[in-house]
Amino acid sequence: MRGGGGTVDVAHLAGETCRSGGYPLDNIIMTSRPPDILWMVDRRYANSPESRAITTHAMLSGQAIRYVDYGEEPLFSRGKTAVPVGSVEYVRWVAEPLLGSPLPEIPDYPEPLRAFCGRRIDRAPLREAPAGSFVKPTLPKQFDAIRNFDPSKPPSGVALDTGCWTSEPVRFHEEYRVYVLDREAIGIAQYDLDSPDRGLLPEDTDRIAKMIAAWEDQPVAWALDVGRADGFEDLLLVETNDGWATGYYPAAMSAGAYAEWLLARWREILSEARRAIEV
Predict the structure, then answer these.
(1) 62 CB neighbour count, 10 Å cutoff
(2) 190 by DSSP, 3-state: which?
(3) Helix, strand, coil percentages for the chain (3-state, nearest 5)
């Protein structure tokens, strides 16, 4: 069993570690002020943009970081909030036992945003995906997205009843990630850096604002990916991403802004989990 229920009390962490023979103290970065957050970073990705941003923020704000190997036994105690940072697989591994339930999944194409897609998008099991379509799993990381799907060559090791999104192929040639917090865009960066950067025009930012406003029951922190596509004048929705499963592009915002954006989503997830338990 991995850890206990609840959150992490960093104030007692060093003492417990020494007494229990657990993690070495050099796995922890602490500053002089007592932190109220413990960032649990996937050691495999300690040099990723996300991990570097969180490290910078934590050192400046008096929070603590623990670098944890995937599969290592985490050490939890009470009183503070543990926030995992790393791959989707790692974040689930750390968080779901604490929550007592799977992490929430927002749809890649929320129904209110379908009008901004510019192509038809359907859900179907892999076995029913049309030839020549764009195919991606409905759950993250089950297999890599497939362009120009060939039914005679399904992805190896993937069950044919795996749920998928299927759509008409669209060629995006300029893509942007929009970080949304409390229904407002707080940062935008181009992420397909091999494509030319024309920059966003006023009509583009207006369209982004309309996309954000159209989704009534959106989470507090999420990412909206948009792009220019051949044959379309307006920006199209590429997909949406839940805050807990979204990478960081430094051109979009500061390390501190990213950390606060990520933390807002985790606080919302924890609050929803507590309400579910109370019900």
Answers:
(1) 14
(2) strand
(3) 35, 25, 45
Taking the C-alpha atoms of residue 234 and residue 76, their distance in angstroms, rounded to an integer, is 48
- Spatial CB neighbours of 26, under 8 Å, sequence gap ≥ 6: none
| 104 closest CA partner among 216, 248, 262, 242 | 242
d(CA 128, CA 106) in angstroms, rounded, equals: 23
Amino acid letter at 219?
A: P
Per the CB < 8 A criterion, the answer to whether 202 and 208 are in contact is: no
Structure tokens at 155: 């992805």
How many Å apart are CA 245 and CA 261, to the nearest integer? 12
- Above pLDDT 90, what percent of the chain? 49
pLDDT digit string, tens, across residues 226-251: 999 988 999 999 999 999 989 999 99
Both tokens of 189, joined, read: 């960066």
**Three-state SS at 172:** strand
Please say whether the beta carbons of 119 and 84 come within 8 A. Answer: no
118 within 8 A of 170, measured Cβ to Cβ: yes
Closest residue by Cα to residue 40 from 101, 103, 98, 90: 90
Contacts of 114 (CB under 8 A, 6+ apart): 121
Q: pTM for the full model?
A: 0.82
